[in-house]
Amino acid sequence: MIFRGFGSEIDGSGKLDRIRKILLFSCSDLPHHLKNCLLYLSIYPEDYPIDVQDILGKWIALGFIEEEEGMIATDIAMRYLKELINRSLIQVKEMWADGKLVNCGLHDFLREIIVSKSKEQSFTAIITGYCTRWPDKVRHLAIHNFTGNPPQGFSSLKCLRSVETFGNEDSLTTSFLSKFLCGGPKFLKVLNLASAELDSIPKEVFKLFHLEYLDLSGTRVKIIPKSIGQLQNLEFLILLETTITELPVEILKLRKLRSLVVGRADDYSNNFALWGFKSLDGIGKLTSLEILGNIEVDGGKVVREIGKLVQLRQLSITKLRREDGKELLYSLSRLTNLRELYIYSIKEEETLDLQHSVSPRLGFLTRLSLTGRLERVPEWVMSLQSLGTLILQNSELSEDENAIDCLGHLPNLAALILSRACEGETLCFKAGGFPKLKELDLVQLKRLKWVSVEEESMPNLQRFAILGCKLMEGLPLGLQNLTELKFLGFYDMFDDLIDKVQNLDNQSDDYQTISHIPQVCIGHWINGEWKEEFL
């Protein structure tokens, strides 16, 4: 635990040299494979939240992950990450309630060291501000907030294995990238152009035969050309937050693809709408896929094809019709490696028909999101012993459905989000239910008036947020029973309830029920973002 006990020294008490030596030794003492993984993090800007799923993919694409018999690269990469975390060389920045690592980062002091070490070894180079020449013989290039005209002369870039851009790269146009790729790196494996000012993909990209990782998220690219099929070694294709809605059939030539993610989401004001991409006949040929994000399932044929992707760990499907529910369950019964499953109906009023004699046994599933009407919660959901997060959205479960009671028996459920999920006026969390729940969100339950929490219900709840439940007439009853609660939030609620919370008398019963909660928050949705006020 390198940084523990060094708080005052890091603040400048004269022992920085000692700490630096310890950190240098810790970095030098790392096995070769871990050293490369750590040094690669030097490409990220200071305090940048490093997406865990992204960095694992880049490590794999760059060949930092050593093969082990009987294990897949993703699991080995995660083990490397956790080992670096255990050595206090990487910090966890964000972890979901169910234990999933979301973002990580570096301590500023350590970042300075690995940036310096990476530069010494020509491992990475960082271009910031104005640049007159490219670095020589560097393997990994990061471009941060570049200004001015990019330098010419690309012969020094032939050793490049990765290029990543950060910030608003106005100078990184399609025209410039064409010249850059034409004259420089032929052995590029990672090309991350997220948020670059691109209207189209330079044709030179499709000549990068060794390319394994391509991220065009947040660009203005609208079309993926047929020449994508030339990238025979591509393993990761990330196309988030673009207007791309179709992929060419040539995608099916990319038999090494591990991750194919396309789509964009809207915000709270549009009820978390999601846009995916139109399905491809023959998608089942991509048998190496571990992540398939936001595919529109237009009929039973595509649903059956998905059942062939037995390596899938994350699956998000959109536009599911009621009549395809049974076929989907058959396919899911074959996807025994699934960890995360997201299902969206074709339209708001469409029912998700997921209750049949076919019951998928998804023993590894940790996250499940169902968006669409439900006549009841499918029985197979209650058998998900590993389930850590459950999201029910637009379910409109009737008041006589015992959904809350049933869900309370899930042994490892840590996070529950109910968004327009229940039609009743009351919600009661009964004694003994939700033994491991840490986070609870109630969102836009239009008829909800009262919430009650019995003793010994949700004994580990730490965060409780209520959003857009505008008929609620008072504070949830029994909040005093939630002794571990650290945060209570009221967002976009009825003004009378907000006034009551803001003006509680210190002697009132309501005040006594929430006085043990460290953070009580009021939130308003203004100009597309939440404005929070802590009481």
Helical content class:
10-25%
* CA distance, first residue to last residue: 36 Å
Q: Which CATH architecture of the domain at 7-112 would you pick?
A: Orthogonal Bundle
**What is the gyration radius calculated from CA atoms?**
25 Å
User: What overall geometry do the principal axes of the alpha carbons give?
Assistant: globular
User: Structural class of the helix and strand makeup?
Assistant: alpha/beta
Tell me, what is the CATH class of the domain at 7-112?
Mainly Alpha
Strands, total number: 25
What percentage of the residues does DSSP assign to strands (E)? 15-25%
**Contiguous runs where pLDDT drops below 50 for at least 5 residues:** 1-10
Protein name: DH200=94 genomic scaffold, scaffold_5393
Domain Disease resistance protein winged helix: 43-114
Organism: Coffea canephora (Robusta coffee)
Keywords: ATP-binding, Leucine-rich repeat, Nucleotide-binding, Plant defense, Repeat
